Amino acid sequence: MSLVAGSYERFLWGYRLKSSKSTGTFNLTPLFSFPSHLSTIKTVAVHGSAAASGGNDDTIKIYDLSSSTEIGSFHHASSVTTLSFYSPPSLSSFPRNLLAGDADGSVSIYDADPFVHLKTIKIHKKAVNSLAIHPSGKLALSVGHDECFAMINLVRGRRSFFCKVGKEASIVQFDASGDKFFMVVDDKISVHESEDARVQLEMENTKRVLCAAPGTNGILFTGGEDRTITVWDTSSGKAVHTIREAHSARVKGIVVLNRTKDEPGEGNPHTIASASSDGVIRVWDSRMISSDNPTPLAEANTKSRLTCLAGSSSIKSLKRPRAELAQPKMEGVDD
């Protein structure tokens, strides 16, 4: 299991979670750490052996985790604010596409085999805050600084729906099935039907939510300014468990590493990881969250202000990521 984190100090950090069969203990082993961008890293994405990072230097960097190397980069017209990989179930160990949102309100679509730019679509009037790709790969959702919500038709490569939310949403996420999606506005998390975007229920956190990750069986993990990891039951809208004081500062990233029985990889299939602006990455057993004061399985201190976290249950793949040296000119699509 691998984890990749970005920081304000433009450093990218990579770790591999290893377990000892003899002792039953876990350890975060460093894979790499280097200043991959010229300024703050705002977003990271990982799928299988492929990883990507985006930052305020208007650049996306592509990495091969199996060899811990940077293999290419793409340049945007503005800061890269959000990244999301997509892979169909038949290709679970390697991504098919990468989507990137930027501060200009555009979403760029990339092929991932090899990495090459396909198209850029103007979606929002201001920065794209978050992207979510439906498990079918046919559509994506986005929310932006313009206080709007959008749907993107990935088959035709165009915006198919756009509406004003009234408040700025910072996060949008599909659940594992794609039947529901979650939207975060400040300290509130709303649960929506994917078919018609109807609100099912709304959950309220104690403070602003900064990160969210869907688990299995209707569970949603969130973290934020309260330094707490909260486990929500999205069927009832109740917080079922919390890890209070999970970190000494804001929780900036959460990753759920639920390895399936058919997926290669080592370690606990009930693992979640969290990263904080205190510089610490912690790994937890989700089955132990219900206990009082759960102890992390493992942790690593980067001694930097972390901004984002992504992970994968395995870095083993039959394919290795490749990037085209020649990059086609990025095209804009007007409203």
Labels describing this entry:
4-stranded antiparallel beta sheet; 53% strand
Write a structural description:
With 335 residues, this protein is mainly beta. 0% of the residues lie in helices and 53% in strands. The chain contains no helices and 28 strands. The strands form seven sheets. A four-stranded antiparallel beta sheet has the order 3-2-1-28, with no helix packed on it. Strand 6 and strand 7 form a beta hairpin. The chain is globular and about 50 Å long. Residues 260-267 and 325-335 have low confidence and may be disordered.
Helix fraction bin: under 10%
Mean pLDDT: 88
Secondary structure tally, helices: 0
Question: How big is the Rg?
Answer: 18 Å
Low-pLDDT regions: 260-267, 325-335
Strand content: over 45%
The biggest sheet amounts to: 4 strands, antiparallel
- The class by helix and strand makeup works out as mainly beta
- Helix/strand order: EEEEEEEEEEEEEEEEEEEEEEEEEEEE
Overall, the morphology is: globular
DSSP E strands, number = 28
Terminal CA distance reads 41 Å
Q: Provide the spatial order of strands within the biggest beta sheet.
A: 3-2-1-28
Strand-helix topology:
Blueprint: E1 2-7, E2 11-19, E3 26-35, E4 41-47, E5 50-55, E6 59-64, E7 69-75, E8 80-86, E9 97-102, E10 106-112, E11 115-122, E12 128-133, E13 139-144, E14 148-153, E15 158-164, E16 171-174, E17 180-185, E18 188-193, E19 199-204, E20 209-214, E21 219-224, E22 229-233, E23 238-243, E24 251-257, E25 271-276, E26 280-285, E27 298-301, E28 306-312
Antiparallel strand pairs: 1-2, 1-28, 2-3, 4-5, 5-6, 6-7, 8-9, 9-10, 10-11, 12-13, 13-14, 14-15, 16-17, 17-18, 18-19, 20-21, 21-22, 22-23, 24-25, 25-26, 26-27
